[in-house]
Specification:
Elements lengths: L1 E10 L2 E11 L3 E6 L6 H9 L6 E6 L2 E2 L5 H8 L2 E4 L11 H12 L4 H14 L15 H12 L6 E5 L7 H17 L3 E5 L3 H7 L2 E6 L2 E7 H4 L5 H7 L3 H10 L2
Parallel strand pairs: 3-8, 3-9, 6-7, 7-8
Antiparallel strand pairs: 1-2, 1-4, 4-5, 9-10
Length: 252
């Protein structure tokens, strides 16, 4: 579980986050949604330690992360997996070497054992024969799966996904959503997903946090999302005709 308590953050005198408190549950898909510039990315960076909050705390399973020294934060970061928006694979490395990268950096074990772990992760994302290929030889969806394999290589307790469906077609997006959801439950990870993809939010989320002008304006389950009732949330959700039709279809 990740707990954010009364976090505020400003840059150059401009307040970006205002007194944010939120809980992200293990074994669940916890989504952060909101307009561009609402503070989603800054909140995520505060949670993983890329930004230090001006006020407030972030705790990982009861361990207060914000005030830890460098070694303490390093230990927790070893428990964090990251799936970046553009996959962020190393073009000059093979797929296998990409997955091996965090293992070589953080684990002291024979190379054979590390390779076995990397191959297990590739098999888990259904790419057992892609190890010798280079990222440029793979489709966007396959690259995203390699990114997931690398993110789970260290057997993380916490998984952060930044726009995991960015640039993918709808069918491939569903595959990625299902894969992340399955892995979240299988490894009981606390998964935090930042997304603009409303189909993904509606189909894959367990809990949703809506960020608006630097604060959590609404939070709840995906089942409650369409009847959230917050004006800014409704405006965000029902900007498209498709979402408006979906709202109408759920009304009694």
């Amino acid at each position: 579980m990740i707990e954010v308590c009364n976090v505020s953050k400003s840059f150059g005198g401009q307040t970006i986050l205002r007194d944010i408190s939120a809980t992200f549950h293990p074994g669940k898909m916890n989504f952060i949604i909101g307009r561009s510039g609402s503070g989603k990315s800054v909140l995520t960076k505060c949670i993983v330690g890329l930004h230090r909050p001006d006020v407030g705390t972030v705790s990982y399973n009861g361990r207060e992360f914000t005030s830890m020294n460098r070694d303490g934060k390093k230990d927790i970061r070893k428990e964090i997996g990251m799936l970046f928006q553009g996959s962020a694979l190393f073009d000059s490395m093979t797929v296998l070497d990409n997955v091996l990268f965090p293992l070589r950096m953080f684990q002291e074990a024979p190379l054979g054992e590390l390779r076995e772990r990397a191959m297990f992760c590739l098999e888990r994302v259904e790419l057992p024969d892609a190890g010798d290929k280079y990222p440029s030889e793979l489709s966007g969806g396959m690259q995203k799966r390699v990114g997931i394999a690398r993110a789970i290589a260290m057997n993380p307790r916490y998984l952060f996904c930044d726009e995991p469906n960015s640039g993918l077609d709808p069918q491939t997006s569903i595959v990625i959503d299902n894969l992340i959801s399955d892995l979240t439950q299988e490894f009981n990870m606390t998964t935090v997903v930042v997304s603009h993809d409303m189909n993904s939010v509606m189909e894959a989320s367990d809990f949703v946090h809506f960020v608006h002008v630097g604060g959590i304006a609404w939070h709840g389950s995906s089942d409650d999302l369409l009847r959230g009732g917050h004006p800014a949330l409704d405006e965000f959700l029902f900007a498209s005709k498709l979402m408006r039709k979906l709202r109408e279809s759920t009304r009694p």
